[in-house]
Amino acid sequence: MRPDTPVPAASTAGDISGAAPAEAEAAAFAEFAAVEAELNTRWPETRLQPSTARIAALVDLLGSPQRGYPVLHIAGTNGKTSVARMVDALLTRLGLRTGRYTSPHLQSVTERISIDGVPVGQRRYLQVYRDIEPYVTMVDAAQPIAMSKFEVLTGMAFAAFADAPVDAAVVEVGMGGTWDATNVADATIALVTPIGVDHVEYLGTDITAIAGEKAGIVKPGAIAVLAAQPREVLEVLLRRVAEVDATVAREGMEFGVLSRRPAVGGQQLRLQGLGGVYDDVYLPLHGAHQAANAVLALAAVEAFFGAGAARKLDADAVVEAFAGVRSPGRLERLRAAPAVFADAAHNPHGARALAAALRPEPAEDGAELGFRRLVAVVATMADKDARGILAELEPAVDEVVVTRNSSPRAMDAGELAEIAVEVFGAGRVSVAPRLDEAVSAAVQLAEEAGGDRLAGAGVVITGSVVTAGEARTLFGKAPA
After folding, report:
1. What is the predicted pLDDT for the residue at 204?
2. If DSSP codes are grouped into helix, strand and coil, which group holds residue 423?
3. Fold of the domain spanning 53-323
4. Could you tell me which residues come within 8 angstroms of residue 313 by beta carbon, excluding any fewer than 6 positions away?
């Protein structure tokens, strides 16, 4: 099953036409599939023209719904979706009604738009699309290039949030920042996760230029909450902050992770926020990068509520919010023994964080996984840095099974195998034509550890968001 294949929702009462529940459900599913097929004829997220003209025209026709609520806007190379989920969880626990817009999705496009932490169902997705469809048609007719699918989805999210209505919207950038469709919103809080090199076909390989694009979400009067960055990246971000007279909070200066240690199913954290120290924070996610994501989200929510040196957020609410955080497809356990995880790392920067979580340095505080035998299943997109991804994984992985996912953009398994052999050596590389076959082969390799080593054997499925989504489907996980 393709990760964007519609998944039928649970049966509900019949519609007002009097159709039986099963018939109404089938009709709704067919309409949903037809709308998705229609949207998929538009430019995908992998093809775009750097411009906000079309989305600006759409939201203008819609009455500027993105200005009806404060926005917490998230840019960066990796960690955006996890941070968005953490911010959403904190705001919800602190009493706000929230909207969350993330991309790309793992299994179903309805995952992208959430209200109160719950993805909209197919019926609501259809309603929102039908509501804005006439205006999308008007924009298409007036513009030299029709709206892309991402632009339409962004308009849908803004409209759905205004209709709810929400008290705050958590919005993840699709790509870049300055000219991303989401940037028609003026953020109250602008979060920037760690910046690395990705989407080189549009953003290039100059990390300072990439930082300049992502800095575009920092608007006049906003509060910029910045993750730890390379020096040259931080300089670009701080220059933007000064240009627009924004306020800044920086990881490692105003906030940070004070300590982390492994715990069952995740890690225990002590966090320095803008308003004080938060002790005994359990986060059910693995890796130092997720701890950093957590404190970034915490600082952003503190800034949103005006917390500072004089006061901090309710500590019990913070602890409860983080304890309930889930981030599907981000080092997500799909099976117990041997342990099988899915991770959406799709660039070297993400693969490096994944490798550190899988096999941290012995001296690192928080070596919560530490497999003794680890097999990776890797399927990447042809336009990604496959060599860089594999090179980052190599120190943490004993063997690799390369394959391809179902996306037409996927790299051929044979081509990926050639790269893998150069990185790992022929004796550590296997090839499977399909993801399901690759996963079966990897599990068998892990099980061959045998005896008491089986408890320390694991499989990680990675290389792409599509790969992680298809892995979830293989293991019977419902869309997140």
Report:
1. 55
2. helix
3. UDP-N-acetylmuramoyl-L-alanine:D-glutamate ligase (3.40.1190)
4. 90, 94, 273, 275, 278, 298, 301, 302, 305, 307
